[in-house]
């Protein structure tokens, strides 16, 4: 396996609620890389209320899965409100942004 966060190795073979692998910090966006392979990166994010990941484009397709709360994801100008358990694919090279109207956590899987 490539670069895997030590805490994930400790959790291999156990059932875990992914919303519990990362904690909120006041007025911040916290990220934790869980897997960093040549073909895939998996990162957990905790966004405090009012935080924003500004518009950008990535060279790879990405899957966002909301683990807790509600977040707003804008892809190429179209806004999507996602709640716990919902997911959305973000196409490669298309501008997107993430807004947290309230605290929420998400899992981002980059598919290289």
UniProtKB/TrEMBL annotation:
PANTHER family: SLR8022 PROTEIN
Pfam families linked: Cupin_2 (PF07883)
SUPFAM superfamilies on file: RmlC-like cupins
Every Cupin type-2 domain range: 47-108
InterPro entries: Cupin_2 (IPR013096), RmlC-like_jellyroll (IPR014710), RmlC_Cupin_sf (IPR011051)
Protein name: Cupin domain-containing protein
């Amino acid at each position: 396996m490539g670069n895997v966060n030590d805490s994930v190795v400790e959790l291999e073979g156990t059932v875990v609620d992914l919303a519990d692998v990362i904690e909120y910090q006041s007025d911040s966006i916290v990220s934790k890389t869980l897997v960093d392979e040549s073909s895939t990166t998996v990162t957990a994010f905790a966004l405090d209320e009012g935080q924003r990941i500004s518009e950008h484009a990535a060279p790879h397709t990405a899957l966002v899965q909301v683990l807790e709360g509600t977040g707003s994801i804008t892809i190429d100008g179209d806004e999507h409100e996602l709640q716990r358990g919902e997911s959305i694919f973000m196409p490669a090279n298309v501008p997107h942004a993430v807004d947290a109207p309230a605290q929420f956590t998400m899992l981002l899987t980059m598919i290289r």
